[in-house]
Amino acid sequence: MSLRSNDTAIDEIVASCNGDLRGAVRALLLINEHLETELAKAYAAAADHGLAERGSSVLH
């Protein structure tokens, strides 16, 4: 992502939280937590199917 598109994304996130910076950070932390959980599930599913071990580049 370019710096300009990052700035636009940040502005949109803050705007979606009615200008509340703490709310925007809280929302981003929750989204990040959700994505980490989904990634862990993907690694577990891949390991169950013998596709990859943690640290492998198959899922990255």
Count of alpha/pi helices: 2
Please outline the major beta sheet: none
Please compute the radius of gyration using only Cα atoms. 16 Å
- The unreliable regions are none
Oligomer: single chain
Principal-axis shape: elongated
Mean pLDDT: 87
Record field, number of beta strands: 0
Fraction of residues in β-strands: under 5%
Strand and helix order: HH
| Helical content band | over 70%
Look at the helices and sheets and give the structural class: mainly alpha
**CA(first)-CA(last) distance:** 18 Å
How would you describe this protein?
The protein contains two helices and no strands. It is mainly alpha-helical and 60 residues long. It is elongated and about 45 Å long.
Topology (elements, then pairings):
Elements: H1 3-16, H2 21-48
